[in-house]
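Lab meeting, action items carried over

1. Structure of the three-component assembly. Owner: GW. Status: complete.
Input record:
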Amino acid sequence: MNLAWTLLFLPLAVAAANQLVLKKTGLAPIVSVGSALATFVIALILLGKNETAYFAWATIGDFSINIGIKLDQLSTGMMIVVTGVGLLVHVFSLAYMKDDAAKARYFAGLSLFMFSMTGIVLADNFIMTFIFWELVGLSSYLLIGHWYQKESAADAAKKAFLCNRIGDFGFMVGILMLWGITGHLAFDQMKGGLEAFQAANPAIFGGVLSAAVLCIFCGAVGKSAQLPLHVWLPDAMEGPTPVSALIHAATMVAAGVYMLFRLQFTLGFEVFEGLQASAVIAWTGGITALAAALMATQQDDIKRVLAYSTLSQLGYMVMAVGLVSGEAGMFHLFTHAWFKALLFLGSGAVIFACHHEQDIWKMGGLLKKMPITGFTFLIGFAALIAVPFTSGFFSKEQILEAAHQKEPILFWIAAAVAVFTPFYMTRLYVVAFLGKNRSENASHAHEVGPLMSGPLVLLATLGAIAGFPFIAEKFSPAYHQPEHLIHLGFVTYVSIGALLTGVIAGCVLYAGKEKDPVSIPLLQNRFYIDGLYDNFLVRYFQDTFAAIIAFFDEFIISGLIVGGLSRAAESFGNLFRKVQSGSLQGYAFAFGLGVILVVYFTVFGR
Amino acid sequence: MATLNDYLLVSGLLFAIGLAGVVLRRNVIIVFMCLELMLSAANLTLVAFSRFNVPPNGLPDYNGQMLVFFVITVAAAEVAVGLAIIVALYRARQTIHTDELTSLKG
Amino acid sequence: MPSYLFWLFSTVMLIGGVSVIAFRNPVSSALSVVTCFVGLAGLFIGLSAFFVGVIQILVYTGAVMVLFLFIIMLLDLKDEEKAAKPLLPIAAGIALVAAFTVQLIGILSRTPNVIAPNLDKETLAAAASGFPATSKIATTLTQGKLPDVHLIGHTLFTQYNLPLQILGVLLLVATIGVVILSKRQAD
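Predicted assembly:
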């Protein structure tokens, strides 16, 4: 267990050391990478262990909040993803952030994130999950806002933070409700509590549990950027690209899915079958997947395309969890982490090579200039669009299969997503990597160094093979082994048909084009959701609410309670202030009068 | 022969005169002199008690005169410090009139 | 001490005291204090406290009041302007003094009066037995004189040694304090 505690606290120690001690020395990046390597090795050692340990963190009467570690296939498998992607991103960052002035702060943020994410994954109770849930929010905030001098980055960080807060409020309520229902917070004890509750109140059981699960789902909606709180994730691309790869593609945004699956796993999957909350979750995921895929088709910023693609893939996972086929979702989370991190790091390499140019229409022809990056990107692309025998294919197949069995409408939505995904990815690849150079920056691009290409190659390998059963069985947090490697059936035909449709449409539309031949303002503007939030929510709702609060604060709190008290004290003080005339004679007179009174009372008064 | 009460009356009157000066006068130096008068009035009381309270050996009670000795010494020190404060005050404010020195007014 | 001398010195002292607060010129006030203290010293000597009487003259009228005069002249104080004094403080001051006097008379009229014990030659000679026979105090006492200074010195250095030392420290502190206070602040 000591190893597990090291796994949890080493990154924290490194983050503190980086921020407090190593800032000036230039050692911070090395120390962070070292810690990432150490945690990865520990994660490998711990893989598949089954243990629990905890210590009491705060005790209030009989109730105590524990900091605990729960090791099982789910958490250790997830740790492989977190530390594996984390390690490669750390290495990539060494090169990517080479010239950044605030390297120590950046690496301290990364280490803090590793600590927080480890905490979520290893948590053995919901309070701890919640604490670390907030901590990843914090580290995400810090890293998105790493270039805080840039106004858009600062705004994006703030937006991410606020959106997450909205979700977290629901999450907190959900945790408290669940605590009320089961009487426990530790995962191991919850199932028993839930059964007792079900036996005692069979009539209201479904409704109450649904409400609790939906509240908890709010947290996942915020963290995993599902509709309607998805708006922060594309903006979060203002952060450094490695951060996008680690936090906003592979790990943190998947925490929502992980947490939902952990909840199902804890309470038992059978409880969730037929629960209304499950349907809501599934539909939210499905709609997010479709909407995000549509939005991705009209974005010009390479990172934004990938961000919407992430949204859409997260939608898949959430849908799978909602369909109570969480293994499929977790499997997809596992494969997606590798190839999406690969795609982000690849885009990072491209952006780095093109001198921070992010518009795909100003790139072009990069495959020739940057063969390693281009080729590894192609592998990630193939995995994402689920070309057969890549990792994405296996996992997506399982999700489609589950949808096909349980909810036909959702299956067709997922199939539509499977058309749009190859379409926008083909568009991205054709425009950015093929054809001619369309700008100065792109024509000067050249291959990146080994510190960047190394992680890309490793991730490409994993992205290609991670879906095969021999790997998934061992490393995936949850995996349901299919009977055949590929089961040729209706689902597979639809999936391959969708893939071909998307790729061919993308090629036909975009091959050799100089600018976007399609222009759909609705999708470019992301269904106007951001505008709606800004103009309606912020302006009317928030402002009205603020006015009410301000009124309350001004008149009730300030005026009556605080102000009234202070005014009473002030007038009382003013009364005595008159006595302090500042006149020496006055004081002497009072003094003499006092003497006379004392003499009177001691001598004559008795 | 003057009795103890005569001495006490005289010293009490001197004390009252000093108190009146402190209350009435506005010049800090004169207020200060009046304080000295009050201290001296107390000294007179002490010496009178020393003379009128005779211990068994028949000599005056010298403990009272000891106290007078100490009061005079401390008063000398107090005058030195007080006058230095007055000089510093005059330098800072160009006045030593108490009705113009009202910084302590609340 | 004969009664007429007592009343003479008392009158000198009280008139001096009244003039302190009556004069408007600070120099006149200071000289009135001197007058007052001279009367006081007379009273001390009348009470057989010769040493204290001499000290009163030397320290108070000699040193302290000269210091006062010196400061008054240093500050070059003019007469207090004859501002229209508000009536209230004067009335309050006089009322205070009146109340105090009334109380004083009240107390004195209730306490039994005491006549000064004799200090004749026999008493003094008898007191000599309390001191070593060869000492200056004993020899003076047997001659029928009161060795005031010796007795004070004896008491001071036998019973009040520690307070005397502390007093020395106090004077030192006062000296240093005055030096620091009167140093001009560096601009």
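2. GW to write a short summary for the group page. Key points so far: The first helix of chain C runs from residue 3 to 22. Chain C touches chain B through 83 residues (CB under 8 Å).
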